[in-house]
Amino acid sequence: MPPRPTNPPTARLEALHERIAILRFLDPACGCGNFLVITYRELRALELEILLELHRNELSETQHEFSFDVTKLSKVDVDQMHGIEIEEFPAKITEVALWLADHQANIALSETFGQLYRRIPLKKSPHIVCANALRTDWKTVLPPEQCSYVLGNPPFVGKHYQNAEQKADMGVVFGEFDNNGDVDFVVSWFVKAADYIRGTTIRCALVSTKNIVQGEQLPII
Ligand SMILES: C[S@@+](CC[C@H](N)C(=O)[O-])C[C@H]1O[C@@H](n2cnc3c(N)ncnc32)[C@H](O)[C@@H]1O
User: Fold this and answer.
1) pLDDT at 131
2) What are the boundaries of each domain within the chain?
3) Which of 82, 143, 157, 197 is the most exposed place for a label (fewest CB within 10 A)?
């Protein structure tokens, strides 16, 4: 590995900071929000590293008597996170878990810079929609031109385990292509995601069973 630069150029760090503050994430089967929470936690940790580098000199020279306002340092916020979840309770948990992650990141920022930083009253919210993702137009949750990444682990559910409602949902997703009876339920999310990201630079990563890339499912998909 190349040695880490000891003095990274300020302009590049500021550009990276701006960049991570405009990223938007969508988990279309977010459950209790672990994927969104970890994404948010890591973004805030990266932001803290950037801020430390940008203000390293002030930190060592002034010994916590700053000329800047710590409340203006952080740009990454919970409204960058978007989710769809069919069950109401996990949807609520996701929202609260993101605020908790936000609070923990704010404490870390406070401790690093020696000034209290908190976002109270809460002005921004995560965008968590309680709905059936297979019957929802994802563009209404997050317009694709604003989205950076789609991620998650939608339910797998092999063909023998799908209930009538799930089969009906698949019918909606597959439309006129009605030969979907042999594929796992999770494929519906890939079809929706492919439609959502078409013509954009969105990157997509969904956890799945390997069944969908082998055997009888592959030609159908
Ligand atoms: C494997 S779990 C995902 C867990 C999630 N990553 C977490 O951190 O909690 C799949 C989730 O998809 C949800 N789900 C199932 N069918 C759905 C649908 N049609 N639309 C939206 N969410 C759905 C389930 O309720 C479940 O919470």
Assistant:
1) 98
2) 8-135, 153-221
3) 143
